[in-house]
# Entry
Amino acid sequence: MIDFTCDYSEGAHPAILQRLMDTNFEQTPGYGEDAYCQSAREKIRSLCGDVDVHFLVGGTQANLTVIAFLLKPWQGVLCADTGHINQHETGAVEATGHKVLALPSKDGKITAAQVEQAMEEHRADATHEHRVQPGMVFIGSPTECGTVYTREELLALSNVCRRYHLPLYLDGARLGYGMAAGNDSLRWEDLTACCDVFYIGGTKVGALFGEAVVIVNPALRTDFRYIMKQRGAMLAKGRLLGLQFDTLFTGHLYETISRHAVEQAQRIRSAFLEKGIPLLFDSPTNQQFPILRREQQAFLAQDFSFCYWEKVDENRDSVRFCTSWATRDEDVTALIHAIEQMP
Amino acid sequence: MIDFTCDYSEGAHPAILQRLMDTNFEQTPGYGEDAYCQSAREKIRSLCGDVDVHFLVGGTQANLTVIAFLLKPWQGVLCADTGHINQHETGAVEATGHKVLALPSKDGKITAAQVEQAMEEHRADATHEHRVQPGMVFIGSPTECGTVYTREELLALSNVCRRYHLPLYLDGARLGYGMAAGNDSLRWEDLTACCDVFYIGGTKVGALFGEAVVIVNPALRTDFRYIMKQRGAMLAKGRLLGLQFDTLFTGHLYETISRHAVEQAQRIRSAFLEKGIPLLFDSPTNQQFPILRREQQAFLAQDFSFCYWEKVDENRDSVRFCTSWATRDEDVTALIHAIEQMP
Amino acid sequence: MIDFTCDYSEGAHPAILQRLMDTNFEQTPGYGEDAYCQSAREKIRSLCGDVDVHFLVGGTQANLTVIAFLLKPWQGVLCADTGHINQHETGAVEATGHKVLALPSKDGKITAAQVEQAMEEHRADATHEHRVQPGMVFIGSPTECGTVYTREELLALSNVCRRYHLPLYLDGARLGYGMAAGNDSLRWEDLTACCDVFYIGGTKVGALFGEAVVIVNPALRTDFRYIMKQRGAMLAKGRLLGLQFDTLFTGHLYETISRHAVEQAQRIRSAFLEKGIPLLFDSPTNQQFPILRREQQAFLAQDFSFCYWEKVDENRDSVRFCTSWATRDEDVTALIHAIEQMP
Amino acid sequence: MIDFTCDYSEGAHPAILQRLMDTNFEQTPGYGEDAYCQSAREKIRSLCGDVDVHFLVGGTQANLTVIAFLLKPWQGVLCADTGHINQHETGAVEATGHKVLALPSKDGKITAAQVEQAMEEHRADATHEHRVQPGMVFIGSPTECGTVYTREELLALSNVCRRYHLPLYLDGARLGYGMAAGNDSLRWEDLTACCDVFYIGGTKVGALFGEAVVIVNPALRTDFRYIMKQRGAMLAKGRLLGLQFDTLFTGHLYETISRHAVEQAQRIRSAFLEKGIPLLFDSPTNQQFPILRREQQAFLAQDFSFCYWEKVDENRDSVRFCTSWATRDEDVTALIHAIEQMP
# Structure
């Protein structure tokens, strides 16, 4: 059985494990104040400029910590109704006291126009003090649907956010896979020019675990470590995170392994399209969402794991195939062969 | 410079790293539902009987998740004023909405009589609905002071807790070191007989990271995974935690490495006592708290790192020396030699 | 200018003010433990049977206190997307840590089938631990749209709630106006048979302020006063609330004044219908939502205040006219006359 | 039985009830946006200068709303360990996510030196990110012990707060009684010069209910009404609060009735002292804390209600006698007579 269910089925890139082995008996200070974290921060700064970098363990933790850090008690976070924080984090944001203000989305993205409309409606409402005040914008790129924001879309969002004094926060759980999505995909300079805060996903892109929260806006940097500790997000042996990001940002490793994953996903995509299978979302990244008939699903499920997404019509569902840094060329070849044979 | 500052300065026991290497490219389900977590659970059950076991990343996270899980909104948690949750977690418990009800303690421990008194005072207060209702008891063993509860003390606490329907929760960040503290130290059967919930510390006892929350009381087992996810405490690659605890509970490794740490600490303790240095707490575990004059501190600080604890008088402070599973025999020998030479 | 904007524009029924005058210099215990509160509770019990009754100051306060009381930390509250807690309480429920799980509604009501579907979808989702667990159902009757639940609808909701162990909570801010809505409107025995908790609105139905929270389910009665105090919902001079509800439930006053308001609203409704004006909702209660052209709005606004509701099309908006216990017959007659004259 | 248990046993000053009667059928907008609230605000501004004024229902509500408004998520509030928020609000502050950082106090007051020491200790602690950051200072004047801050003490507190950027918040539940405490008691100009926020207590000083939150610091005024609504602290018929404060601040009523209460309390105080009875606190305000033997308590309890405070020694307890705006001269005379007869 070959597993395409998700992008966190394997361990870590071997270079990371090797670093852990090599440094295992070194003694370092805890809580992210060691030299490896410092080195990783410097490497990220070489890409992103003068930013603050904090290493957290996981994505839900990063999201809830950043959002609780940015909002005032009476504020909520605007995001796509499909957004991870609205759907798949067991109300982690609400547990910090804040409403998720969901905007309708068909492909996982929201637009600058939607944010503007939400702000104008809030302002125009004579009873706006009885409503949750929108206090920031959350986006993911890639989204849960595999789609990405273009530079123009991100810039438009950033402009509207600045006009309304809304911090813009980008969840980059699969950031590398988005950056490998094509020539006009987001670059580091787009992220730092447009976002107030974003995170660079490690868990899904080569690390054992870990996400690097990057605070771009200098006005939003004070005291973040307090809330990290409070939310259980400050790892005692912080160097484990530093070592991993230091490795990922040495010799373009993050970029290289991301490109590999996307290339494998695009091979899968092409195979489905050639077979005449429609895709639920037009994804240039590592997740593909073919719409399959029940017997097609059964056929592929003999040798491959994948993930149910949603019902499309009486006979068909969309399903999800994920690749990752760890996906083997021969496994994709086997899958493509099966797609070709599929009824 | 040899570091005795804390018990999480190094990485992990080599057997753990080897397991991570060996299994790196296996594909497993996420979120703790893999075979390694299952195997680790079974090994812990072979020691603890019919219990639920959940793997979380760190101690603050374990504490805030368990406490938020157990308390009703108007309840607080009784604990020693020295307790980690009261002092060193940046208000993590309060951030979940609950007051820490601190009881005075000189050595990190609280007594059954203190809990009983708190409950009787609450009941006797005609305005008790205007006060936070004590809803559970938190203890650590070993405590932050290196002391341990005896079986009799734990049993007495458990009895009073049951009488007042208070869940008893034990923070076992250094549980192994407490179990290695001597013949009458707590055994697994004491923990499961007395506690409703406890956690087995991995971060400080051989793991890269990870704590195993053990829910003993069958009435308190429902839906814990929901709150784990909500608080960012459900690791995507949960197998990393399963693998580590599976290794620690194979062939008595947890026990063996704990005993090593305590033996090294007792060597240090003896050296201080022979030198005529008093100890702030009478610790049979891996933390030792000598009371040193300033020039003694300066002398030892030439070659060793240790941790300031608190001022004792004009000329003296207590400091802390920690050993761990990773402490080398020769490093302790060097420290002992320095203690002997100390002014 | 005659004000039909809302149902809390005036003070209180004169009988209530008289009671406050008559008892002003009596000395009573605080916090709801006085004889007036006790008497009011007994009168409510004579209608509702063996229930617990607590007096709170306002509706948002009642909702947030009851919901925080009923839910576990990882649970959310199912309600109509139009529901007050989802729209007009500035995220009060989220500020207690809980997500509002909004179900689509056209008329302010939700159905048993919707609740069942939500529960089945939650159960069927393999990742349900990553989603907020529905933990209770919130309904209002009358709703924000002026509509009411029939006995059959409420019973169906209650049945599905019991099947899934979901407490059913009814916000009765305008309860009296709902009970006066016609022969098949909800009676006390329907409320106590179907709801676990409901509140009897005073603020909008004759009182200066105050809502009576009625806890029907015996399993949900413990410690409610603790959370009342914690949320600032326990009035020091609790007797003020007791006196008001005692007066409202003496000699059928609550019923009588509610009927008056609904009769006046139905006169307004008839006038609009006779004029050929459509209504946005089919409301048998004290709120009416005619759909008016801009010039019609301007015409009526010369002498009457009313409330903008929502845009219907390019030329028309729905607006809201409220009556209350205090609405004067001659003011409604004047309004009807204007409606007849309206362009 | 004459009741000296507390200062909220009666209703309201008759002038307030009269205003409620006179205005009962006027129609006003809700939520504090009516002309009576506006007028009350102007009267308070005529005493306090350019401040924002918001009317809330009760003291716990005012405290939790202001504190949640002022603090960042990782901050706590410094206050006396005897403080109402630390003792008698069922963890209302913790329920908003914030720790109460209690400072030891013998008489209900804290000093500038204590605040300075807390700040310096926090700064000096190398692990301060693991501790709750002090984010504001809470004081009451009069305190729960009946004591008051002098101008010098308040100014010193204010200076240290400004040096450390800590908002200073004064709970004035009994503010009037403090202002009537003697020639050097706090004046309005002291409050506005020293406090960032304070509240003027109505519930205990002549109103049926209500507290006026005064925000002095212009930097802390934005969006307070959002959090009021969110915490259930925005009264629908806000005019009820406006009317009461407008009345209290017409013709020096607040001042006059406060002075009356304090004069009556001082008569009681003198009677105890003349009888040779010691007082637990040296209170110049409306609460007196004599230390009585059990048989003395029993003797007085035949005709008077008072409140148990705390055990002093084997034979004696301190008890509390409160006067208020409503205390009758002849009742105090009867009490004094009883004190003289006391065994």
